[in-house]
Write a structure and sequence with these properties.
Layout: E1 4-8, H1 12-25, E2 30-34, H2 37-45, E3 53-57, H3 65-75, E4 80-85, H4 91-96, E5 101-104, H5 109-117, E6 131-134, E7 140-143, E8 146-147, H6 153-164, E9 170-171, H7 172-179, H8 187-206, E10 213-216, E11 219-222, E12 227-229, H9 230-235, H10 239-244, H11 257-265
Parallel strand pairs: 1-2, 1-3, 3-4, 4-5, 6-12
Antiparallel strand pairs: 6-7, 7-8, 9-11, 10-11
Helix pairs in contact: 1-5, 2-3, 6-8
């Protein structure tokens, strides 16, 4: 998936320099450039352009880059704003509206590269091969658009509980208590859990996602950076995910009910 980039500067020469630097840095991007900030805003509001990153000149006639940035964020909450200007005094105002970055003119490709490599909201590549975990509503796991098949419902629940712990290590005893709340610990239960762990390990390995799990002597956890997850994005303040939350979290599991109150408070 190529990155979609919006470039806006009401000075044609400066806009050309900016666009050439962007194309040199990110040749596969979908670049939309505008000398008129109102036309740029209209393109985004109409849905014709959905930018991952917007490079905006600060001082523009009639509609400043700061005003344009606020309007773009109202329409497209995840857009990364990078201001481009010849004046450093705007830096404070830029970061008050949570801009991703700030570049001083004349724009150099190296500066563009630095900003794209350190975006406030990194662009998620569709082809990065990571699992996508859905916690809101029912718990589901996807590889691309295809649901991941679990041979046992308890294997899926085991993975759900580990995701719920957000990378914190869980002991075997803790996992058994969570998955079988009404059964006392026993050798048979421990044996059953070991079978589930193996089943989960094999299931993830079969789709090239072995790195999702981290196992150490009697403990296991997930690596949060190894997959995408709406729950994790919510905690990080992703506006679109927050707005999409409808009060349900891993609805098929009773132990997950306690998290709903936490999410409602957030």
């Amino acid at each position: 998936m190529s990155m979609t980039i919006l470039a806006v500067d009401d000075e044609p020469v400066a806009l050309d320099v900016l666009c050439r630097a962007i194309r040199e840095t990110e040749p596969d991007c979908a670049l939309f450039d505008f000398a008129d900030p109102w036309k740029a805003l209209g393109a985004v509001e109409s849905g014709g352009v959905i930018p991952d990153v917007a490079f905006l000149d600060v001082e523009m006639f009639d509609l400043t880059g700061l005003e344009l940035a606020k309007r773009l964020k109202d329409v497209c909450a995840r857009v990364n704003i990078v201001f481009v200007t010849g004046y450093a005094e705007y830096m404070g105002e830029a970061f008050r509206i949570h801009a991703s970055g700030y570049i001083l003119k004349p724009v150099q490709p190296q500066a563009i590269r630095m900003e794209l490599d350190d975006l406030r909201r990194p662009v998620k590549r569709a082809d990065d091969g990571r699992l996508r975990v859905q916690c809101f509503g029912n718990f589901e796991v996807f590889l691309g658009e295809r649901p991941l098949e679990f041979s046992r419902s308890k294997t899926k629940e085991l993975f759900a509980y580990l995701v719920n712990r957000r990378g914190a290590a869980c002991t075997v005893r803790e996992l058994a208590a969570a998955l079988w709340e009404d059964r006392p610990d026993s050798a048979a239960l421990q044996s059953h859990l070991r079978q589930l762990v193996k089943d989960l390990t094999d299931t993830l390995a079969a789709v090239g996602a072995s790195k999702v799990l981290c196992k150490q002597r009697g403990r296991m956890a997930v690596r949060p950076e190894a997959f995408s997850c709406d729950y994790y994005d919510f905690i990080q303040g992703d506006v679109q995910v927050v707005n999409a939350y409808m009060g349900e979290y891993m609805a098929q599991y009773s132990w997950a009910e306690f998290v709903v109150a936490y999410l409602d408070q957030r």
